């Protein structure tokens, strides 16, 4: 048995079985027991505490042209958390590196039907969507290395900035309401090229992950300017709605200074939950997993669950969109809770 989540659950079950009956409740004072308790909470999430569904389909672009700030890690782990807590979620990998596909255990070798085929070719998103092992409620459109050429190939394509938006709108229109995603999360590459532009035109809101390190705010002005330009010329509905602080190291003063600076600058856009620097978060993709399934009781896992909960709570009362392509298309409410991990039946 290699899955740490599975190990934790069975060790918890074994502990409970061997506990003297007079002990009643298990003793949750020790660190390992606390971790096991947190793990079971994450793994049985949807049974206990589903997240509220958004008032409309939420298409969120996760962008920051700075490399390595946690875009992919946040897309994947927020996506898995939303799905484990009952909300149908589609992750679109828009980075030729294919890191989100890797972390979700989705095949993305050359030739795999991928987002490239929908952007540059004639495929519909439905033809390139893949299931994930994390949850039957989580689907992924992978990116293959072919996408690296898309920036150039798209240049001559008509309405090239709108390709992804049109693909998403056609996809949700074709699905019956009970299969429509509540959340679409788009993972951007670390650049402001045509791929990121497609993601900004496709999204209704932007989530910017900011690493709690030196130079965190550097380059952000350029991203915000680009978002303004997209709002003026291509997508009037787009706005930055969420900032997520990532890789926070509580041992350093610097992390607190950066977090304070970001909060002063962006106010309520910054989620109260902060993602700590946590080795389990960085190990998980190597196993084709999110940290929630790899080590559900870790601080990385529980903080992503908390961030996803806050994101979902902010989604219950969103203003309606002018987005005509999605008019009248809303997802059915989440189906009754179901078991989180390793349940393979499709929804
Ligand atoms: N909270 C965390 N704790 C520890 N390591 C982390 C954490 N978040 C991300 N990492 C690691 O930092 C590196 C960069 O993260 P990630 O790939 O998510 O950033 P990115 O913004 O998507 O990068 P790129 O710009 O290359 O697409 C990865 O190796 C990832 O595993
Ligand atoms: Mg990335």
Give descriptors for this structure.
alpha/beta, 347 residues, 15 helices, 8-stranded mixed beta sheet, binds magnesium ion, binds adenosine-5'-triphosphate, disordered N terminus, disordered C terminus, 8 strands, Rossmann fold
Summarize the structure.
By secondary structure, the chain is an alpha/beta fold.
Q: What's the order of the H and E elements?
A: HHHEHEHHHEEHHEHEHEHEHHH
Helical fraction equals: 25-40%
Low-confidence stretches: 1-5, 11-26, 336-347
Strand content: 5-15%
* Number of contiguous helices: 15
Q: Which value, in Å, is the CA radius of gyration?
A: 20 Å
Structure description:
By secondary structure, this protein is an alpha/beta fold. The protein has 2 domains: 1-17 and 25-43, no CATH class; 54-326, Rossmann fold, CATH 3.40.50. The chain contains 15 helices and 8 strands. The chain has helices at residues 4-18, 31-43, 45-48, 71-84, 99-103, 115-119, 125-128, 150-153, 163-174, 194-202, 220-233, 253-266, 279-283, 291-294, 299-313; strands spanning 58-62, 89-93, 130-131, 138-141, 183-187, 205-211, 239-248, 270-276. It has an 8-stranded mixed β-sheet with strand order 3-4-2-5-1-6-7-8, sandwiched between helices. The protein is globular and about 60 Å long. Mean pLDDT is 86; it is low at 1-5, 11-26 and 336-347.
